Amino acid sequence: MTIEILRIGADFDRYGELLDLILAAFAFMDGRIDPPSSARWLTPASLRQKARQEIAFAAIDNGRLVGCIFLKPEEALLYIGKLAVHPSTQGKGVGRSLLGQAEATAHELGLSSLRLETRIELIENHRLFAAWGFGKTTESRHTGYDRTTSIEMRKRLD
Question: Which of 63, 53, 50 is nearest to 15 (CA)?
Fold first, then answer.
């Protein structure tokens, strides 16, 4: 596998494929998390808009879209959203490569930390992010829920 990380810019025209990738990567959450993932409401048009408003990267392997990450600068940190790796390429370094791009972007912007949110039910994600250097910072709940539905994790950058 030879992963190439490309910035999603104005010339990117693979939003239908990007949506398919995200839905495939998030499919394991169906029936496991409540409320359902916001990925279910994405469209090619909303992804195009998201890429214009945020910093987005695609992971490409031999022309095939295998991963993506959306980054949003916040005060002193970079928020990671919609980190997705196609199920057929999970465990092969795609996610780590995308995380490396997030770290490089944070450094370029002078930001000292990365932040992400993951659902409380997704223990395997908590473990993976912890192995990548993230630590749990807070718990939160979606509107209308009386229980914790997600956790925030952060990684301080050197």
Answer: 50
pLDDT band at 123 (very low <50, low <70, confident <90, very high): very high
Cα–Cα dist 117/112, whole Å: 17
Q: Distance of CA 35 to CAs 88, 102, 148, 149, Å?
A: 26, 27, 11, 8
- Residue 41, SS3 per DSSP: helix
Sheet strands side by side (includes 77-85):
3-7, 55-61, 64-74, 77-85, 113-119, 150-156, 135-140
Work out the pLDDT band at 29, boundaries 50, 70, 90.
very high
Tokens of 121: 């039910």
| Integer CA distances (angstroms), 68 to 15, 83, 141, 144, in order | 11, 6, 26, 30
Among 31-40, 79-88, 109-118, 123-132, the range scoring the smallest mean pLDDT is 31-40
Closest by CA to 154, choosing from 79, 71, 73, 74, is: 79
Q: What is the pTM of this model?
A: 0.95
